[in-house]
Amino acid sequence: MRHRPFFRWVLALGVVLFGWSAYTYVTYPETRQIDLTVISEKPDGRCTVRWQDPYHDGGRSREAAYRCDPGRGEPLKPSSSASGTRNGWETGFMFTEGRHKGDLEPSPDDENPYALSDALMLSGLALIAVGLFGGNLRGSVRLAGVRPRTVARARALHERAERVAQDHARARDAVRAAWNALRAEQTEAKLSATPVARPFEGVAAGPEARELEAAGARTARDVLDAGVRGLGHTGVGRRTAERAHAAARRLADDVEATLSVRIDPAASGPHTTALLDALHVLLEAGAEAHRTAHTGRELADDPSRTLVEAEPASGYRSMLRAGREQREISRAAVTTLRSLLAGAGREGLPARFAQTSVDLLRAPDDRVPGLSAHTDFESRTGAYYGLLATVVDAQDTRADH
Questions:
Q1: Is 178 exposed, middle or buried (0-12, 13-18, 19+ CB in 10 A)?
Q2: Which of 280, 254, 275 is nearest to 263 (CA)?
Q3: Which of 275, 276, 272, 269 is nearest to 372 (CA)?
Q4: H or E stretch including 140?
Q5: Helix (H) / strand (E) containing 238
Q6: Alpha-carbon torsion 346, 351, 354, 357, what sign?
Q7: Facing residues of 66 across strands?
Q8: Among 45, 161, 169, 319, which one is most buried in terms of CB atoms within 10 A?
Q9: Roughly what angle, to the nearest 10 degrees, separates helices 238-258 and 206-214?
Q10: Are 103 and 55 in contact (CB under 8 A)?
């Protein structure tokens, strides 16, 4: 996450509000205090007053609603004025300039003439204080080793490296899955085409083979599918069923171990199409994709611990909560991450990771499933078999371990 100058904006806003307050105070129209004759007044202070306006019509009298002070003495109120009339007395302020010249300024109870200016000034001072204090605190914490941007960039690079390694592994797994399915399909086809007498070749078991055929087991696949119990239910003797099943099982193992699967581009089976499509994706991505994925795998494995150690440096609160030893470890980890990021930037790894992931996830652009892969296979058959051998050998090596 990119560091944002939050406190700098707070300070700037405080300065703006303080300047606005000064401008409001300076530009507020001048007023002078005058006497007001209170014609009528309600208990809550709402009253009607009269005053002399010297700026219009030669000093004419004007009347207007006003907010009198309800707490002033009774002699000043209309009901018991000192002069014996029913009028009362109050003071107010009249504008002496501007477009409201001669008008009464709103009473203090209704609106303080400088209330806006005061509010702006107080808000501005508070924001200036927060901006200065927070900015200085943030600066001191950053000097103590907080580097949220570095940690965020390292985390993003780690995620991209992990993603490209996973995408490459999925692409190779797709080849293995399709290959295993095709091998199983061809193994099943061969077993289904093998007569039931074949497993007994070299053994004097002609009557047993005839017994199996009479029970409906025509091929080695039928024997494996039925099992010993199934054969027994069809009338085959226990000994014959066991010998037949064991012989068929050995034959299946031999077929699976020695079967040489060939990719027939003329075959339109789903497993053949899936295998060609999976190989086509890896070949189109190229050898560079394999190298990039290998780099991503190493990068995804190596900095995981460093990222954990650098975690306190990802934020101000986390760094403040961390102990002294954790902060030291975090600073060292950040240094390592910065070196790693610099090397990755020089090699262009972020862009390479992103492009390789796109290449490995690209779907075929033909409308007929497997069409482009079938065509490409015919033009570079050797490349397809070479890649298949590499992927399958890697699977066998991994299975051995």
A1: buried
A2: 275
A3: 276
A4: helix 115-143
A5: helix 238-258
A6: negative
A7: 47
A8: 161
A9: 100
A10: no
The type of residue at 307 is: L
pLDDT tens across the length of the chain (401 residues) = 344 567 677 777 778 877 877 777 676 778 888 999 999 888 888 899 999 988 887 788 899 999 888 888 888 888 654 455 578 889 888 888 877 788 888 765 455 555 666 677 778 778 778 766 766 655 555 445 667 788 888 888 888 988 999 999 999 999 899 888 888 888 888 887 777 776 555 444 566 667 776 677 778 888 887 888 887 777 778 887 887 788 888 888 877 777 777 777 676 678 888 888 888 888 888 888 889 888 888 887 766 778 878 877 777 677 766 777 877 788 888 888 888 888 888 888 888 988 888 888 876 655 445 678 878 888 888 888 888 888 887 655 454 43
Query: How many residues are there in the chain?
Result: 401
Residue in 285, 328, 165 with CA at minimum distance from that of residue 277: 285
C-beta separation of 313 from 334 below 8 A: yes
Distance between terminal CA atoms of the chain? 42
Cα separation of 283 and 390, whole Å?
Answer: 12
How does 88-99 read in b/e, with b if 16+ C-beta sit within 10 Å? bbbebbbbeeee
Q: How far apart are CA 227 and CA 245, in angstroms?
A: 6
Taking the C-alpha atoms of residue 115 and residue 125, their distance in angstroms, rounded to an integer, is 15
The 3-state DSSP class for residue 38 equals strand
| Cα(104)–Cα(31) distance, integer angstroms | 9
Half-sphere exposure (Cβ direction) of 217: Cα atoms closer than 13 Å: 32
Euclidean distance between CA atoms 373 and 128, whole angstroms: 67
Could you tell me which of 357, 335, 356, 349 has the C-alpha nearest to residue 299?
Answer: 349
The residues with which 48 forms a beta bridge, in sequence order, are: 40, 65
Task: Give the DSSP H/E element, type plus range, for residue 41.
Answer: strand 31-41
Q: What's the CA gap between 135 and 148, in Å, rounded?
A: 16
Residue type, 34: I
